[in-house]
Structure prediction request, 127 residues.
Amino acid sequence: MANYCIMRFQKHKKESIAKVERHQNEREHLKNRAHPERQNKTIKRHQDETMLQTVKRLQEEQEKRTGRKVRKDAVALVEIVLTFSPEMEEHIARNFKEWYRKNIQWLKDTFGGDNLIRCDINRDQET
Prediction:
């Protein structure tokens, strides 16, 4: 059986950002929490702001810098999920910090470190 790295992108407009953040913050109700004893972790670039507040502030800064308004229907956030196939769980668990570090570095290299506003590590799911 082959082992896979899995990546999913989902674009969000400003009005759906609060829902995305609630989904990450309130995980106890999720049915796919196969390992509720495992510790999840959230790393935020701006600790005192919600994701929506951060996005609004960044859009305002961009508007001031460019002199152009951001369209109301513009994509404001891209959610990226990076995970792996179940066959890799034991291997990744032994090297989790390295796997995590390489994923964060790839995100920074690909999208720019200033564009990462939050990282959620959800270890309570099946993979």
